[in-house]
Design brief:
The protein contains seven helices and 16 strands. With 410 residues, the protein is an alpha+beta fold. The protein has a domain at 153-218 and 268-409: Beta Barrel (L,D-transpeptidase catalytic domain-like), CATH 2.40.440.10. Strands 7-6-5-16-9-12-13-15 form an eight-stranded mixed sheet. The radius of gyration is 49 Å and the shape is elongated. The termini are far apart. The model is unreliable at 1-22, 48-140 and 143-153 (pLDDT under 50).
Length: 410
């Protein structure tokens, strides 16, 4: 028999059991969702770790105690001033400036030239000698008489009268007259050539011999004293020339063989060179302390190709009178050592530098010899003035600092 209480519980029990079955189904669904979410999260974590493992392991840079200044965009070069061993180094930054080399027009002759020591070496003298760099401007210059130019009838007749005169008994006066004819102009080419020919003969005695004319104010006589030598004598009495010129005009074979009381002929004044480009000539002129000028002679020259020889007034560059210098060709780089018989510039070099606004800074030009004798009378050098060996030896002896001038005319 079923009790009523039991029947009620049975009813309630079935109802409860029904509800439990519904709750178990929901929990199962929730569990599935949780599992799916967990799987998704796990997959995401695995992918993230996998991605991080592919990147490089970058270590953080250590902190620097030194302050780093930003680098300027322009390139800078530090000028370093060093102090004591423990002192800090001071850096003064300055902008990089590209050096600019100023080159004189067609200055190809300066090139690399080994500076030989001029003989004699000593430049000082026992007696005061003017060493100013200022060059006194000469008032006269030989006219370019090698190229015919219009000459007035009066000037031509005066020149003709001078040339036609028979050699005077007074060679000093005759030399002065012929020199004035050339220095002042007015002669034709033929007359000038005749004047130079006669001057050459006159100067062989008046200058290039031991004979001293008492009326000649361009030379003097010196008697050798104890402890003298040619170098010392020249520097004291004729500082404007080289001692080798004294040896030349006095016919001294050995400069060490001179005797006390021996009389020497010494030139007075200064020698200058006048170059006529259009005539390819160089005229030597001597000026005495009284301001008088005479013509010593004329010699042919070679000049720079493409009209590269500059014009104007020049002085002799200090320490630039070289004997048997070495030389490097600036175009080919070929080097010629001292004593090389194939040296194109020969055995003598006289450097010149401009003294006018138009030629200041032109330091690479000079007067030198040549082994190519056929180039004389032509434009064949790199801008310098070239002479035959014997001629350049004489010019080298006569042109010196500080007073000699080289005037280059068109």
């Amino acid at each position: 028999m079923v009790l009523s209480s039991q029947a009620g519980r049975q009813t309630n029990s079935r109802k409860y059991m029904y509800r439990r079955r519904r709750n178990r189904g929901t929990s199962w669904l929730v569990g599935i969702v949780v599992v799916v979410i967990a799987v998704g999260v796990g997959w995401w974590v695995i992918e993230l770790n996998s991605t991080n493992q592919d990147a490089p392991n970058v270590q953080p840079e250590p902190a620097m105690s030194t302050t780093i200044e930003p680098v300027a965009e322009d390139v800078m070069v530090p000028a370093i001033t060093m102090g004591q061993a423990d002192d800090p180094v001071e850096l003064e930054f300055q902008p990089v400036i590209e050096p600019v080399t100023l080159e004189p027009p067609v200055e190809e002759e300066i090139v690399e030239m080994t500076i030989a020591v001029e003989e004699p070496v000593q430049e000082t003298v026992d007696t005061p000698v003017t060493t100013t760099d200022e060059v006194e401007i000469l008032n006269t210059a030989p006219r370019n008489t090698t190229v015919a130019s219009p000459v007035s009838d009066e000037s031509e007749s005066v020149a003709a009268a001078t040339i036609d005169q028979a050699p005077a008994a007074d060679p000093v006066r005759r030399r002065a007259e012929l020199s004035a004819l050339i220095l002042q102009g007015g002669a034709t080419t033929s007359q000038a050539n005749d004047a130079f020919a006669e001057l050459h003969q006159l100067n062989q005695k008046l200058l290039f011999s031991k004979i001293v004319d008492p009326n000649d104010s361009f030379v003097m006589t010196y008697a050798i004293k104890p402890n003298d030598n040619l170098e010392l004598i020249t520097k004291r009495n004729s500082p404007s020339v080289d001692w080798r010129f004294i040896q030349r005009i006095n016919g001294i074979r050995n400069p060490n063989h001179i005797r006390i009381g021996q009389k020497l002929k010494m030139p007075v004044g200064t020698f200058h060179a006048f170059v006529n480009k259009s005539g390819y000539t160089l005229d030597l002129v001597q000026t005495n302390p009284q301001g008088d000028s005479i013509v010593i002679g004329r010699m042919p020259v070679g000049l720079g190709e493409y009209n590269s020889t500059p014009t104007g007034r020049f002085k002799i560059r200090r320490n630039s009178r070289l004997l048997d210098p070495s030389w490097t060709n600036p175009r080919t780089g070929e080097h010629f050592a001292s004593n090389d018989p194939g040296n194109p510039i020969g055995e003598h070099w006289v450097g010149i530098e401009g003294v006018e606004e138009s030629n200041k800074g032109m330091l690479g030009y000079g007067i030198h010899g040549t082994i190519d004798h056929g180039s004389i009378g032509k434009d064949a050098s790199m801008g310098c003035i070239r002479l035959l060996p014997d001629d350049v030896a004489l010019v080298w002896e006569l042109l010196k600092t500080p007073d000699s001038q080289v005037i280059i005319l068109p």
